[in-house]
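Researcher: Please translate sequence to structure tokens.
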Amino acid sequence: MPWALSCWPSQRRPVRSSLFTITRSENLSALRALFVFSCMPFPILFDSCVVGFMDKHYTPKDLASAIVRDLACRAPKRAADFAAGEGSLLNAIRERWPNTPLVATDLSQSAVNKLRKRFRNAKAERCDFLDSTSRSQVVSLSSNRKKFSLILLNPPFSNRDGKTWPQQVGRQAVACSRALAFVIASLPYLSRKGQVVAILPSSCLTSQRDASARAAILESYHIRILRSKKNVQFEKCSVEVVVIAISRRSVSDVSQSDINRLAAPSGDVTTQLAKNSINASIFRGTIPMSGCSTMPKGGIALVHTTDLNEGSIRLSSLRVSAEVSSSTTGPAILMPRVGRPNSKKVCLYLSSERVALSDCILAVKFNSIAAAKLVYALLSSHERRLLDSYVGSCAKYLTLDGLRLMLNSLGVATEVCRADQAATSKLVALAQ
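Model: Translation complete:
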């Protein structure tokens, strides 16, 4: 007999406890609910308690279908979703590639049970995917199994307490948000020519909390932005998300890239980029406008966002000491770091005259005029993607990592040269 029956109350007496008091009018209905709760099977009770702490925002069917429909790849040999939920992403795979074997995991046992009924031929198992011990107990993920050529993810977004999750990227230990931790945990299960396609909160590409994880991923993988959605309507909430594709860095991933059709530049520009080795550095200006003045002689001109207009730079009379470190010569591309996104303020600077950069300017410095013109043409043909890289709910801004990832999404890989670094990086065309 459940213990709740032995203490079923009289409606005449209040039930008192050191933690609460149930009034005379409430005690019967409250303890009836407690009785039902106590009689629940333990797995269901545990599942409800644990999963209840996490937001369950399942992938909208139209978004899942659009993501899979736009993938320009052959039928995956094996596909998986490690946060499967209701199975929208799996269903999109099944609709396009009916014969692809599917594997699904989810923290919720009730979700797993529904997945098993919905996808009769799929292997669905319960797994706390951020727990390595739990992953090791999933038969479909064992080391002797074949890896996956396509992994689709809509991981949990919740991070209200600002907690970071430890993960390992190769031999490098990092800490990051829950959503990006899910992506990192999936990478060891990716085949050599496979890719992870993930729906993530846009902050994963810009936040300081995820900076070290992004850098670690980019050492061994390409990250490309497939979609940038300002407001995706999940159940009971609207979220700004990006859809990214991650693939291993190798010669072969050029030909097998599943997102060439979406992300590759136009044919002529692509061909020229592939045939040229382009050296560049991406950095941010550091000079505050408050320290500038009009100097009749000496010094070097200062470039601020107000000097960027209609694709060209019109230098003002503001000058600063020639000793400043935040300066550049042409060939370079200069663009605003903050403010309302405007493609007319993305400017090609080809002069050999050295100019200083305000702290509101981002620069991409090239080793040749031809290289600068090629990438400028690439940005011009993908104006919307550049403008969507600016983030922020009030004043929009573009981060160094955001610029880097945006170029990467266009088929160009690069590294950032920060203020405390003296390195330059190579831009390598990924598409042919």
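Researcher: Any highlights?
Model: The mean pLDDT is 75.
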